[in-house]
Amino acid sequence: MTRRLDKKSLGLWTVLMLAAVAALACTQEVVREVPVEKVVTQEVVREVPVERVVEVEKEVVRTVEVEKPVEVVREVVKEVEVPGDTVIVERPVEVVKEVVVTKEVEVEVVKEVEAKLSPSLAAEAARYGGDLKIVSSGGIATLDSDFSGAYSSAAPGMHIHESLFKYDADFVSKPELAKSWTISPDGKTYTFEILEHDFHTTSTFEGRPLIADDLIESLQRWVKKHSGGKSLKQFAYGDGDVVIDKLNDYTIRFPLQNAYSPFISHVGAIRGALQVWPQEIAALDPFQDVGVDNIVGSGPYKLASWEPGFRVILERHESYVPRSEPHSNFAGAQTPYMDRLIFLEVPDAETKIAGLKTAEWDIIDSGPPDAIDDLLADPNIDLALNVPGSMSNIAFNGESKVFKDIKVRQAVQAAIDAESMISTLGPKNTWSLCSAYFHCETPLARTTGDENYNVGNLDRAKQLLAESSYDGEEIIMLSPTDLAALTPLGLVLKPLLEDVGFNVSAPTIDWSTEVGILFGGEEKWDEWDIVPMGFGFYGLHDPITDGFATGGTFINYHNDTLKDLRSRWAASLDPEERDQIVDEMQLEFYRDPPFVILGMYHAIHPYRTYVKGFTSIRGMPSHTNVWIER
Amino acid sequence: MLRYVAHRLLATIPVLLTVILFVFVIVRLTPGDPAALMAGPDAPATDVEAIRESLGLNRPLIVQLGIWMGDLAQGDLGTSTFGKNKVLDLIRQRMVPTISLAVMAEVLAVGMAVPLGILAGWKARSLTDRGVMLFAVLGYSIPVFWLGLMLIYLFAVNLNWVPAAGYTPPQEGLLDYFMHLILPAATTAVIAMALITRMTRATMIETLNEDYVRTARAKGLAEKVVLVRHALRNAALPIVTVIGLGVAALLSGLVVTESVFAIPGLGRLLVDSIASRNYPVIQGTTLVISVVYVFINLLVDLSYAFLDPRIRY
């Protein structure tokens, strides 16, 4: 009895827990695997194509054939003399003769030979296959990148969905689904013919051809949800219904009311771009998550499974045909070399680095900048920088009693030594100085008005503050304690503001709470005055869509001059006039600053050197045209 | 016994109801807006408002609570704000890595701690005892995240014996599954080991001074028999209590280990859902963890009857 009890006491917990593990492991149906076409661990290597060559040979064969023709001859056996005559008695004899004949015979010879590929084609074929493991920049809360503006949701989404156009490396829209297009001379009629692409087949969706109906519904979704689409409705259709005509299954037409020049640029933006969904999914409420079962596109990769908090697995869309134009960022040939893209969630920065060093994963999307030296010391690791990066800045609350006064904002602008502030974010190669309101390295990057950038003149700042309506009241600076791209800025900004003469309160706050206040609407306006901020690059920063500059976002900035300029810019079909308007807008921004630019902060993307084709990140990392070469 | 179990189960109902109400109110009082987090920093206020409305977040709190309680009564923990995953599915999915890690850590901890505790208790106040206690104090004092990172750099980055981090589900390869759990389990085990070692040592010292132990020695029993059959058995109750509560704590408290080693477990689900203000997941996960605590406590209590025949329910 005693022994039995001892065993129980020792094994009780182990047995219970193991049973629980086994039971849970057996109920793995909770993992939302969408298509189950491939075994998860299977690595499929695309074979070098083998040609079957049928060779027909004509062969002349000279043969000696032995014929045995029977020739009947008569042999005289004997002569019999009969009265009056002589009778000859004969008998038949068979004689065999050999005759030589010549014949021509056709012989068909079938040979299987391995195609002799050209070296370049063989190298291209060898790029196919394998898994690419990417550590996501953050937690992947949703895969509906139409619903959420989060970068970590957009990163897989860019490989799932197609658009009519996508940005190339210079941030210029180039055709993706568009086969051809025409714009009428008055700029009011856009006609697009699209390529014959197919939607993905998943466990919940049977793949089918993508046609004009899908595109039209997706465009209407874009109009409801994204700033590019909303601007189209506002400027091109005078806020009326967006009319899109279906000419046939592969051609659509936009009869605009007003000329609208940025249309094609907005459609191809990196984030907030048009995403083409099947019609029935595009028709769902764009302000709700479509749900994992509805993540269907026509891009080079399709969703295979999503285990929230762990990983998202994308598989190659086998029927995807890349465009013939050269690859450039998200434009041109998007060749899916990898069999699978696996986006992993790894919360700890040190662990991200350790896993990259041991090749547990291949790429880190936005790695910790303070690890640069350590990473570069490893010969197996290289770095790609995200260009243009996000714009670090100090943003004002346009509804703040203090910062409504232009002079107060100009005082802060004059005080800020941009270089010394942005250098707190990381080593020199992770940031760059930039005075362009519409982001550097983009078609709208300007230096106009930059005499007011990176000034760092405390005396001038104090003078401007003295000329302003500021009367020593407390201002609230929100700076989160848990965001590496913002926390150091707050630590430097507070003493600087105090040096200028502000009375600053800086409550301890985490990012989630800060977001709640910034977006809390009118009732939260008095809870903040100034914040260090980072505006991510969304690939659509222009006079129309840049919400930060035009009053659409939480900073509550309003400027009528800018309003007029943006309307003129939208309607103008003259490139020179549009350039001039951008210059005028930038000057106005520096006169009446909605925020003070510090510069561009470049996220680093460390990767194993065996990953090829991943050297340049323009806006967001693209994992097409990337392969592994060990 | 059955009556006792039924009584204990009934007693959990008010406990769980309190937890439900407490969690529901607390998460909504916490500053932060899930709609704003979803929309992203460049989103216009109108979009944030539209998302808030679509999620039902602008309804009165009492209505939201009523809807959740109604769903709960039907066994539905709700749907995640993001991705539209069922909360119960998410929890079940995350339980596998967490239970795997907890069991492995607890087996390691018990396997090391009980013999060490017996040794320290038997050789009390000796150099061996002091050595074991130093180890236990260190184990309890070292921050888990630091220890985890040190183990990663030593055994994964430098020696390349085990994977640095990550997780492989058992159905994708048992060897890989175990290899990925070794370092996190060892990291987690150190704290549990320290606690169990100290508890075992203390109870062993107490028990070894009892008269029946002296009697056992006087009648000439081998020291091993005295230690295991007489002393350890009588010292078992507090040790089992610590082990049981340790398992419960591990199931909910592996947040740091799971984060350092990138294990997609229950602790991380809770922390991630708090960061994104994913109310249904916060509520569901907290409720499930409470249920686990209640049931493990019940199992510990029931195990006393097996360990000590004098205890009757």
Short description:
The complex is a heterodimer of chains A (630) and B (313). Chain A is of the alpha+beta class and 630 residues long.
Description of the molecule:
- The complex is a heterodimer of chains A (630) and B (313).
- Chain A is of the alpha+beta class.
- In chain A, 27% of the residues lie in helices and 22% in strands.
- Chain A has 17 helices and 29 strands.
- Chain A is elongated and about 170 Å long.
- The model of chain A is unreliable at 1-64 (pLDDT under 50).
- By secondary structure, chain B is mainly α.
- Chain B folds into two domains: 2-73, no CATH class; 88-312, MetI-like (MetI-like fold), CATH 1.10.3720.10.
- Helices cover 77% and strands 0% of the residues of chain B.
- Chain B has helices spanning 2-29, 34-39, 45-54, 61-73, 87-122, 127-141, 144-158, 174-208, 211-218, 223-253, 255-260, 266-275, 279-307.
- Chain B is globular, with a radius of gyration of 24 Å.
- At the A-B interface, helix 1, helix 8 and helix 14 of A face helix 2, helix 3, helix 5, helix 7 and helix 10 of B.
Characteristic key phrases:
heterodimer, A: 630 residues, alpha+beta, Dipeptide-binding Protein, domain 1, 4 domains, six-stranded mixed beta sheet, four-stranded antiparallel beta sheet, 29 strands, 22% strand, disordered N terminus, B: 313 residues, mainly alpha, MetI-like fold, 2 domains, 13 helices, 0% strand, globular
